[in-house]
Structure formats: structure tokens, C-alpha cells
Amino acid sequence: MGELISYEPATGALVWRGPTGDVAAEVAAACEGWIQWAAKPFEYRAETLRRFANNVRAHADAFADLIARETGKPLWEAKGEVESVVAKVDISIMAYAERTPRRRMEGAMGARTAIRHKPHGVLAVLGPYNFPAHLPNGHIVPALLAGNGVIFKPSEKTPATGAFLVERFLEAGVPDGALRLVQGGVEEGKALAANPDIDGLLFTGSAKAGAALSRQFADTPQRILALELGGNNPLVVWEPSDIQAAATIVVQSAFLSAGQRCTCARRLIVEDGKEGPLLDEIAKILDRLIVGAPHDKPAPFMGPVIDNASAIGVLDAFLDLIMKGGRAVRHMAKPESDRPFLTPGLIDVTDVANRPDEEIFGPMLQMIRVPDFDSAITEANATRYGLAASVITGKPQLYDRFWANVRAGVINWNRPTNGAPSNAPFGGVGISGNHRPSAFYAADYCAYPVTSVESEQARATIGQGLLDG
């Protein structure tokens, strides 16, 4: 058994250290304990999770402080994440009632048809580091509501947040047989996904990891696999009615959370020759934008990326595009050699041939100039991904064309690409997922429907095919 250590990205201070978990033992415990949880009435499980929400609310300040320190995100953003954790419970209870209701229909001869739902069993949840509480919580809450047992492995980069989250569930009365915590890295994640006793896996992370899981689960179609993956998201600005608002939406889309959201805009698509005023307004905002540590005063807009390796990878991707013919509109910089702070980068890649269709997970935005709106739609669709897309325009007819022709699971108008509402489905097409949208639709993959034809009295006849008796 190894040791896991977490450090603050902004300062390098120690946040958490502890042993890696025993995957086999945790799976065995969940397999033994989940049935008692599933046997409880839905109302009991819902009330337990409402206590969890109240428990999180009571620890909100400490929780937000921990998230901010462990991820590097600004404190104001971490507070918003905690609020999302609390809100998820009521949203999930509503979603369960709407997406998986009990139905009864009358049939012939006194029979009736009943539709009810059962939990899958023991579900593994692999969480990401960018929203280490909100995103795994978005799987855990609906899974528990449906009566499943859950084994949660947080990202190895945010183990403290994962442990804090699980403590709040257990304090609220979720039995430890229904929710198990496994700390660890890549090896523990692989072992959990490969364990034959789990009944499914709910994953949020990179498209590369999602593809590997799809291959791994291909031989076990009886197990549920829900993938929430990344995006190479387009943001089209075309004849905006307010250039300042458009620039603000561009900055929010590309650089919120230091670009570490799967819905962040990666590609800015503009009308060739008319991009000047927009770039001027973006520059004004970036000149004022604060990059800093979570608790700095005044509060920063964005903090560091998660670690130095990630920062170097994003900076290398920026420099690689320049080497291939890109033109830096706003140079990206790494001000501190030993800390993963990055300044926002904007690069014109119009003349870069064979641009890599990758999700570069950091504060980097690529600009592509096109001659007309049809070309903008073509460029928006020039990706294997299909998570989020947005168009900023003052013309409703252009939005109608954009919505009808762009392939994505989230399509916005005059709004940022990021910040999808929790009371709506969230997911993508292409390699951004496997058609298991989360958020409000998470109830769909946390329980399976059972159809029953029922009659209180046995009645049967065979009307054809019998010899005369």
C-alpha cells in the first residue's frame, strides 16, 4: 500500500497525505452493504441525502477553503462549487421523480402493466480534479437515491476534497456499506474499473481515458458505463449587438477556472477582417484580469492550473502552435518557475495547417478567421468532440442556423460556453461522451426500468392450436 500526498498548487504547502486504498476490500464491502441501503424506501434515502445537503451547508466555509487550497481556484469560485453540491440533492430528487417514475396502466381482463426501476448494484465513481466535489457528487447523489452502492475514487490530485465530501455523507447517515472511499492514483483507478464485481462505472475525465474505458467495458455489456468527457469547444462571434459584452463572454468562456472546465471555449471563430474591435475589447479585459492565489485580495479572476506538469504542457502546446505558423495575439507566460500560474494566451491559428483536434486543458484560446457564416459553422464542426458550442450574435436567424447545424450537447446563444445549469441534461456527442448525459438526466443511468404485467388472479386460455377435447 502506497502513500498519496496533495499540495496546494498556489503555494506548494501540504494539504493532505494518507495511504492508498485497497480496491478489492472496498468493492467487497460495498457488495455486502449496498443491499441494505437499496431495501430502504426511496423517501428514507431522499431524507438522508437532504441531511447530507444540510451537513454540507453547515461546513460550507471549511469546504470551500479546502477546495480552493487543493485546486488553486479562487475562493469565490470554490464557494460556488459548494453551493452546487448542496443544490444537487433537491435537483436529483426532482429528476428521479420525473425521469424514473412509477407508472401503472390498466390492461385487459383485470391485468395491469407496472413500470418501476431498480438500482444496478455497486457503481464505481471516478472523479476529476477541476471540480473535485461538484462533479463526483453529481454521480454519487443520484446513484445513492436510486439505491445503488457507490465506491468513490477521487482524483489523486484532490484526495482531501474527496475525503471531506465522503465524511459529509457518512455523518448524514449514509451507511458506510453504501458509500466507500478509495484513495489512489492511476493504478487504483484501473483496478477499480477492472474489478468484476462492480455493476457499472460513472466517469468524468479526459476523452483518452474515456476511450480506454469503452474498450475495457466492451466485453461486459451488462455493466453500465456513463462517460462525461471533454471538448474542443467552438465560440463563434458574428455581428454581435454589443462588442463589449461579446468580449466579456469570450474571456469568461475561455479563461474561467484557468481554462480547466470541459466546457471552456477552445476555439474562437470570427469573421475575417472584422475581428479588430473584438480583439481590442478582449485586450482591455485581459490587461485588468487578475491571476493569483485563491485567498488573494483583491480576489483573482483565475488561479493556477492544477500542477507544474499541466502548466508546462499547456505552455508547450501554445509554443508548438506558434512553431507551426500561429500568431500570438496575447502571449502566454508562466511567471513563476516553481508554481503553475499561467497568464491567458490567445493565438491566431488560421494559417496553421492540420491543427490538432485536442482539448488543451488550460487558459489558451485559438482564433480562426473565416469568410462567411457557413464557414463558421463548418469550422465549429471541425472536431471529433461535441460537448459545448456558443454563438454571440445580434441576429436570431443566425442563432437558428447555428443551433440547427452545429453538433454539440450544449448550444448557447449570447452566453458563455461554460456554466451549464444543473436542472438540465449535460452531455455531448462525438468523443465527448457515450450518450449518457448527466446532471438532470443522471437518473437515467443510475437505475434500470422493469416492466411487469400483473394480475391478482391467474386467468389463461389457449384459443388456437388445440385438438378438440
Low-pLDDT ranges: none
The rough form would be described as globular
Number of helices: 14
Instruction: Quickly give the structural class.
Output: alpha/beta
Average pLDDT works out at 96
Q: In angstroms, what is the radius of gyration?
A: 24 Å
What's the main sheet like? 7 strands, mixed
How would you describe this protein?
With 469 residues, the protein is of the alpha/beta class. 38% of the residues lie in helices and 20% in strands. It contains 14 helices and 19 strands. It has helices at 23-38, 42-58, 60-71, 75-99, 134-145, 159-171, 186-194, 207-217, 243-255, 276-288, 308-323, 373-380, 396-405, 443-446; strands at 3-7, 14-19, 103-106, 112-119, 122-126, 149-153, 179-181, 200-204, 224-228, 233-237, 265-271, 327-330, 345-348, 364-370, 388-392, 410-413, 425-426, 438-439, 447-454. The strands form five sheets. It has a seven-stranded mixed beta sheet with strand order 12-13-14-11-10-15-16, with helices on both faces. The chain has a five-stranded parallel beta sheet with strand order 7-6-5-8-9, with helices on both faces. Strands 3-4-19 form a three-stranded antiparallel beta sheet. A hairpin with a 6-residue loop joins strand 1 and strand 2. Helix 3 (60-71) packs antiparallel against helix 6 (159-171). The mean pLDDT is 96.
